[in-house]
Amino acid sequence: MSEYERVDKNSRAIMKSGEAVSATGEPAAQRWAEILRRQWHLLMLSLQFYTRIPVRLLYDFHEADLNQASRYIALTGWLVALAAACAYLSGLYFYGPWGGAVLAVATGVLITGAFHEDGLADAADGFGGGHTPERILEIMKDSRVGTYGALALALSLSLKIVVLAQLSPDAALLLLWISHACSRALAISLIASLDYVRADQLSKVKPVAKGIATRDIAIAAGMAIAPLMLAGAKALILAAVGLWLLRRASICYLSRRLGGYTGDCLGAVQQLGEIVLFLLLGALWSSI
């Protein structure tokens, strides 16, 4: 049994000879240290998979670990937002609001390696040009960007830049934090409601989480809601309703057109989540 598996199974402590020990006879302090190491490993795995940030994993990679690592996807969004915020402030100082907006959006794309934007483009091409599930999957596997994908990317990036440029610096920074965290939590929540559509071995799609526990969704949701709590009641309600409607619409659409989800679909939903938040919160805060 590997160290990772041993930590996973060692879930409770018992009292023995007056000393707290784990179910495998380890001291409780050591047990908790290993649990923390495991959680750190999952966070690093989330960063490694969803961003280009160079990290070191504590354990060997197993594709199934992505299911649990998804609990930290909102926290990963926090770190992406932090990098985008630094770029925004630098651009704002040297080039004004438009420069800050462009650098913030560009940084978000670069630090993730356009991971989610690639999903948006592929999904736009697939659903725009395919009329059957088989044809949709075939188009999404094609590494070339078509007309629908190019238009989706252009409209998405342009909209984000325009909205950020219209907001005050405080509002823009908060919007970056909220959108990067909440949109990622929204995307992985679909895993619990849809079946994974298996692609063949020629698929260019990277490994993707194919199952997620309710506890992991709750952890991701909690980290996503945290920045929203700072935005006020109106923003909280507006964002919650908008994301809930988008989630329901995404589940219905993907079920009808594809019978489930792929990694590209999750990336597209993440980008749509950002767009919804930019439109709703941008309209709210630009009118204040």
Automatic annotation (TrEMBL):
Pathway: Cofactor biosynthesis; adenosylcobalamin biosynthesis; adenosylcobalamin from cob(II)yrinate a,c-diamide: step 7/7. It is a multi-pass membrane protein. This is Adenosylcobinamide-GDP ribazoletransferase. Keywords: Cell inner membrane, Cell membrane, Cobalamin biosynthesis, Magnesium, Membrane, Transferase, Transmembrane, Transmembrane helix. GO terms for cellular component: plasma membrane. The keyword Transmembrane applies. It comes from Hahella chejuensis (strain KCTC 2396). Belongs to the CobS family.
